[in-house]
Each structure stands twice: as structure tokens, then as C-alpha cells.
Amino acid sequence: MPRMVAAVEALFDSATALQKFSLVASSAYILQTMIQAGAEHISSGLLRMPDGQLSQATFCVIVERPDTGPVPQDRRVTAKRTAQQWRDLHPGADVGLIMLPYGIAALCVREEELSIPGALFGVTEPVVTTVLQAQFCVPLKTGPGTALYALTTEDVANWPSWLELLGGIMKSVSAEEPADGAEGSGEPRVAAAPRGTENHP
Predict the structure, then answer these.
(1) Which among 51, 54, 43, 60 is positioned nearest to 200, based on CA atoms?
(2) Strand partners of residue 150
(3) Tens of pLDDT along 72-124?
(4) 142, exposed or middle or buried, with CB in 10 Å at 0-12, 13-18, 19+?
């Protein structure tokens, strides 16, 4: 929280105190929700738009490893099953299958309303905010389980820029051994961001 406050103060110096507080409170709530869901990686990223404005989004990775299941699993069947579950859960979402360099994955892009506790803003009623989220469900190659990659932002107007960035991240997912020679796990990992892409979440 202190680091987030310091970043907002430095980057959004023209914003009002209430705007800064709202950004920190909503971001912290999203992060806490992802932590409770078992996220193994969470990052909050900023992109500078062509007009000079900064846009914020949150990126997380959740890896699910059930105790039992087929080894190896049929990854196409797993991806199809996930896509169907998403269609049932989110009728208005864009859901489909996509082939990544790592392998087949299910993709879900949807709009969602988050109800943030009003206590964070000093009010009684919950504060409702609209976010866009893209999720990739990538079945693991090494046994039962999946890796879920999700990017969430309140900046609906700049969604295409975030979606393009997420596409680049997903293309970098690899099961290859790390460059340092350590033994690879066979599970999906994201390659280090190339220089000049410090805005990656």
C-alpha cells in the first residue's frame, strides 16, 4: 500500500486527493481479491497512452494443480471444457479457443461490475465500478491442472492497448528451460520482458 500511494502521488500529481485515494483503494481491493483466489503472481502495471495519460491495469497468474487427474491430460478437452463453463457462467462474454505457442488455451473477455466496500471510501454504501477482464486458461503439459492468466482494468476506453499487451505476454509463455541452465518444470512461464517494455504489468 505505501508503494502504491507513493507511485500515485508521483505519477498523478494533477489529480485531486479523492481521485488518488479512489485509485489506490480500488487497486488494493482488486489485488486483495486475487490474493484470496490463490494468485501466484500479481502485478499492477501502467501504460502511457498516445495523449500522455497513464492507464492502469492488474495482471495475475493462478496455477491450479488438483491432487488427482490424468497424466498426461488431454489439453484440448480441458480447454474446451473450460470454454463451455465460461459460456455458461458469463452468457454475454466473448469466449473461444486460441492456439498459443505453448499450446491450446481457452479465452474469455468480459465486462464485469465490481462492488467495492464503501468503507474504503468513507461511505456506507458499496461503490460499483465497471472493469474489463481477459482470461486465458492454459492446460499444463506436465499433468492435471491449468494456469490462469488474467488482466483487469477499469480503463475501458483504452482496452485495445491492454489487450494488445496481454497478447504479447501470452505469446511469450513457454515451457522451455530457463536461460540460466536450471531444470525447467514443463509448466508455463513468462519470458522476461525485453528492454523498453517497462510498462508491462
Answers:
(1) 43
(2) 60, 135
(3) 778 999 999 999 999 999 999 999 999 999 999 999 999 988 777 666 556 67
(4) middle
Element (H, E) at 189: strand 189-190
DSSP 126-184: PEEEEEEEEEEEEE-SSSS-EEEEEEEES-GGGHHHHHHHHHHHHHTEE-SPPTT-PPP
Contact between residue 145 and residue 63 where contact means Cβ atoms under 8 Å apart: yes
CB atoms within 10 A of CB 161: 18
CA–CA–CA angle 154, 155, 156 (5° rounding):
95
Q: Is the dihedral of CA 162, 167, 172, 175 positive or negative?
A: positive
**54, three cell numbers:** 497513464
How many Å apart are CA 172 and CA 161, to the nearest integer? 17
Distance, in Å, from the CA atom of 76 to the CA atom of 104, rounded to the nearest integer, reads 6
* Residue 184: Cβ within 10 Å count: 13
Question: Beta-strand (E) ranges in 31-126?
Answer: 41-48, 54-64, 94-99, 104-116
Omega within 30 of 0 (cis) for the link into 72: yes
Identity of residue 48: R
d(CA 101, CA 107): 14
pTM of the predicted model over 0.85: no
